[in-house]
Amino acid sequence: MSSNRESFMHGKQLTKVFGFGQQKVTAVQAVDFDFHRGEIISIVGESGSGKTTLAKMIMGLLKESSGTIEYKGKTRQLKRHAERKAYWKDIQAIFQDPFASFNMFHKVEKLLLDCIKLQGLQLTKDERFAKMKEACSFVNLKFEELYNKYPFELSGGQMQRLMIARIFMLHPKVLIADEPTSMVDACSRSTILDMLLKLRDENNMTIIFITHDVGLAYYISDTIYIMEKGKIVERGTAEEVILSPQHPYTKQLIADVPKIHEAWNLG
Ligand SMILES: Nc1ncnc2c1ncn2[C@@H]1O[C@H](COP(=O)(O)OP(=O)(O)OP(=O)(O)O)[C@@H](O)[C@H]1O
């Protein structure tokens, strides 16, 4: 784990209610969190437990019904365009479906060039080319073979890698990864996880990993939050939560994973 434990993002009593009256759903209920620089946090829960809603509130894509997020020592404000622009420079997301992340009508070269533009960098053609090549080689892709292709001409694994290449170029302070490995085979999955670990190690990035897979959470995280029906029912280091779970829901999640100890080398 990173030795830099600067605490820089807190959630206080975050709540999201959808709908009214009989249709009312409290998707996230009074959630507190405390994320540090360079920390990998997993938010684990079953389908419908509120993980994606929480992630969208952290991203600033959904407005909270109540509660606040403190970021870098101040209450986060996203009302003004300039505030949103500054926040979204620091925070990026990758989703389980790479098709949702790319403009399918833009070739790979344009998708990567947009990252350079987003950062406001003034580079020569050679420098731009070198940056795109570097990002592709970070994820073991060959820029020369891909730059002229559309995203739908790539395999699922190549698209996932391209998403990570974009994160490498943008180097956000916070990355939200919503089940980014769910559409790839086991081999590509461990490569993607290793790339995320490398991103954290090289850039002191905070990574918030959204998953229903407790084994995966144990493999990748420093800290795990367990979410049930909109609430955080347990949180702690990965070892504490997975090896000595306290809450019945966490115990059940772990029991539901066949042979978790063998599959994830838990000893
Ligand atoms: N826009 C919305 N309008 C109404 N209800 C919603 C909306 N988005 C989510 N919900 C409800 O909020 C609850 C939490 O959903 P959410 O997508 O956050 O769960 P999740 O843990 O991410 O699930 P999954 O793992 O299946 O993605 C669910 O009951 C869902 O139906």
Automatic annotation (TrEMBL):
<dbReference type="Pfam" id="PF00005">
    <property type="entry name" value="ABC_tran"/>
</dbReference>
<protein>
    <submittedName>
        <fullName>Dipeptide/oligopeptide/nickel ABC transporter ATP-binding protein</fullName>
    </submittedName>
</protein>
<dbReference type="InterPro" id="IPR027417">
    <property type="entry name" value="P-loop_NTPase"/>
</dbReference>
<dbReference type="GO" id="GO:0005524">
    <property type="term" value="F:ATP binding"/>
</dbReference>
<dbReference type="GO" id="GO:0016887">
    <property type="term" value="F:ATP hydrolysis activity"/>
</dbReference>
<dbReference type="InterPro" id="IPR017871">
    <property type="entry name" value="ABC_transporter-like_CS"/>
</dbReference>
<keyword id="KW-0547">Nucleotide-binding</keyword>
<dbReference type="InterPro" id="IPR003593">
    <property type="entry name" value="AAA+_ATPase"/>
</dbReference>
<dbReference type="InterPro" id="IPR003439">
    <property type="entry name" value="ABC_transporter-like_ATP-bd"/>
</dbReference>
<feature type="domain" description="ABC transporter">
    <location>
        <begin position="9"/>
        <end position="254"/>
    </location>
</feature>
<keyword id="KW-0067">ATP-binding</keyword>
